[in-house]
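User: I would dearly like some help making sense of a protein record. This is the protein in question:
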Amino acid sequence: MKKYISSLEINYKTLFILVMILFSLLRIYMGLNTQTWFFINSPQDDLLMLNYSNLPYHFLEWNIWTLTKNISYSIFLFLVNISGVSYRLSLSILWIISGLIVTYSVYKFLTKNKIILLLTFIFIIFLPIGFDSACGTRIYRNAIMAPSAMIFLSSLFIFINSSISKFQNKTKQMFFWGIILGLTFTFNFYIKEDGILTLPIFLVSIFTIIIFNLYNHIKHWHKKSTSKNLILKLTKITILSLIPLLIFGASTIAYKEVNNHYFGVNEINTRTGGEIGEFYKNLLIIEDSNKTTEIWVPASTIEKAWDASPTLQTRPDLLDDWLNTSWTQGGLIDNPLPGDHISWSLRDSLYNVGLFENEKNANDFFEKVNNELDDAFENGTLNKSEKIFITDSATGRTFDEIKELKPYIISGFMECMFYDTIEVRTTPIPETSLILSNNETEKAEYMLNDNLIQQDDLKILPLKEKIPLTLMNINIKIYQLVSYFLVLLSIISFIGLCSYQIKNKFKNRKNNALIGFLIMLIGTFIVQIFAIAWFGAWFKADDMMKFYTVADQGIFALFEVLSITGALSILYKEKLIRNNR
């Protein structure tokens, strides 16, 4: 009988693995048949990322766009290129890896029920944003943000639980997952320039782990143990806990040093960082009645900065070129640039008047300018805006202007929780960006080991593409239909987890860790949507929030998985306890 049961368990495990493989192959099949595309005339976006991905060219051939964006996505493209694996297959593999790590985190610390694990895996790898034409299949960094966020956050969850476990191999687990967490956080942090929004959950988790373990060791320290042993244990657990932070810090220093070696500035990017970035931030905080929530830096603000800076006054040619920038018809006075476009146009003007021959010269020039502006703020020549600022790279807002963000925030929640406006199109977005055969297309296809949409491909959709397209649309509809149930269930599960722990006076530290992590997840989710609405409200496109909140769909999906599986694991344990009475 025991032999029969053992054989049944083996067959069950084999079936579980086989089903996971089959769904992985289905995800790959659908991913391979998505229509990847990019904006052909986008030197500041799609083409920029592709140019960065040729790393030798990026570091050896400087231009004014070289340090305007972070490099993680381009490193991903570089790895795709040298691997010989197609871009579409690489994206599918990334989604499968995220599904495996999320599933492993559930298996290791919440439940080993194979049905739940299988549903978790399927739910993650088929998230709709991965097929969305505006985000998931465009050759741009948004395509990797959701799976990368889930890989980082799942690694963080595993690291937290490994640190509070009583397992004998706790040291090895913390060391291994500390390295994984450090690498995945660093990669995730440098996908976009707003990576700082994920820094709080990372830092809070690490320092909470340190405090918990220090307290736990001291609390259970007995007189039989020597002070030397206690100090060694405390030092060991502190170092293990700090591994992810040390990796992030070392990687950041190395990133800056590489840029300093090749470009002469110890900065990650010089559009939002460095002295050029600091100048842009100074423009944002200058008090000016002409500013609106759409026009962050009007011409009058630029003129105020010129009046306050003797160094700027030595370059009237820069002022003239900037006010008459080609970024807008008629110049900034008649047609001011919206949002952060002003920071992009500055680089063109600096180059046009010979002030941007390299990064160091421009950085040195604006170091003098910023010192003069600081003095102007101190002596009252310039006044700082009294509006509220939540970031130094976006405009300030009054309380009434903050209220105007409500529709954008609601849109962000609807996109990430209920998958609104997720869609798969058979043409690129917009149609004016159709990919044509030219040098840029050939370069992109070489870097991606893949084919892009050609104009002729759009006339007739072949049968081999109709099948996966139908599957993608069905997949999206299913997620949209079940989303309301899953959102409600996850909220109920979270409340249930909290109630259970309160009832049991927070005795189970794993459940405490789960609840704390869920609170940080939902907090990160809300803060990011709010910050993105603040930053992007000037951008009037209907899918603006969907485009910028890609990572949040992954964050909320992880919240749903962990809250529901966490509640189910407690229900199962309670049932076992009752049955054994």
User: Anything to note?
Assistant: The radius of gyration is 26 Å.
